[in-house]
Amino acid sequence: MHSSSSTLLSIFSMKPKDENTLHLLDLNKLQRQANIPTQFMWPKEDMVGTDGVFNEPLIDLEGFIKGDKIATAKAIEHVRTACTDHGFFQVINHGVDTDLIQAAYREIDAVFELPFNKKLGFRQKPGGYTGFSSAHAERFSSSLPWKETFSFMYRGMNSHSAVVDYFTFTLGQDFENAGLVYQKYCERMSELSLIIMELLALSLGVDRSHYRKFFEDGTSIMRCNYYPPCKNPGVTFGTGPHCDPNSITIIHQDQVGGLEILAGDKWLAVTPRPDAFTINIGDTFMAFSNGIYKSCIHRALVNEERGRRSLVCFVSPKEDMVVRPPEDLVVGSNRVYPDFTWSSLLDFTNNHRRTDLHNLENFFPWLLSSQPKVPT
């Protein structure tokens, strides 16, 4: 399973698509067709079926946040087990208001419901991180994901009105309220990410604040996903199998479902819970932990009858932050990964290689070859 996906996702076209090509990828039109375009079809060997439901315990953050020793010990145990196995867990009682989550869905629905021509007006540019994308067609030319995305940046707790400004500048004054909602949503995601960082540190046996300090002024990418209905869901993915290159990913999925993780060589469906966020360990945190914690392999399926939405926050440190594990996790010279900056890995996965199951092992040879040669 791993090898086929790795081979499939290793190369992608970096040629920018023109508007005529992009018009052919209007998923609102394509969803009504019985046969989907070949660009969306994935090799049969990658269409491995679901083999069960993810049923590991939810992690209740309320006791941890309040400092309850028993609840903290239980949360630490669950996180340690999950992250050494498959890099995925779910949290409840996280402090994010349900009304805010639902408001975020309502506001982003209005963006995805805009006419396709309008959305192309703020489309994501090749090499960029923000704006609208239909099937990531500005980057890829085959094995396209069956989804639309809208992405924007959030820089720590000092962003003030940056998200509001982005919405009004990009979408117009009519979307000021959407910007206000997402400004608040991103602030809650930043707060939650710092709680998660403390929990991860304790579960690894290092100082509670060790990771938190790297992320207080970090840069996150907020991505809203819409997966339209697909009349032939057995030949495509909403998102193909991959690991995230960032540190952790905080996801809320609506009640349609479709998120799956690979655990014990089985694809397990993650049952949607309106009161839960899913947490994926990414490649950067795997390096921060000296390889002790695993980057989560996951994918998203599409639904034949219903559209699906998800809210995804990719949490990362500052771009120039040097990624290295604490000394407590390094025995002698037992470093699993060399030092690197988050900006270099972001550049690699965004501009040079499609994310797959083996991001880091492909990244380091590229990093070594791209560094300036020192004269001898």
From TrEMBL:
Matching InterPro entries: DIOX_N, IPNS-like_FE2OG_OXY, IPNS-like_sf, Iron_ascorbate_oxido_reductase, Oxoglu/Fe-dep_dioxygenase_dom
Entry cofactors: L-ascorbate
One Pfam family of this chain: 2OG-FeII_Oxy
Protein family (similarity comment): Belongs to the iron/ascorbate-dependent oxidoreductase family. GA20OX subfamily.
Name under which the protein is recorded: Gibberellin 20 oxidase 2
Keyword Oxidoreductase recorded: yes
UniProt GO BP: gibberellin biosynthetic process
KW Iron (keyword) present: yes
Keywords: Iron, Metal-binding, Oxidoreductase
Reactions catalysed, as given in the entry: gibberellin A12 + 2 2-oxoglutarate + 3 O2 + H(+) = gibberellin A9 + 2 succinate + 3 CO2 + 2 H2O
Native source species: Hibiscus trionum
Domain named Fe2OG dioxygenase: residues: 218-317
GO MF annotation, one: metal ion binding
Pathway: Hormone biosynthesis; Plant hormone biosynthesis; gibberellin biosynthesis
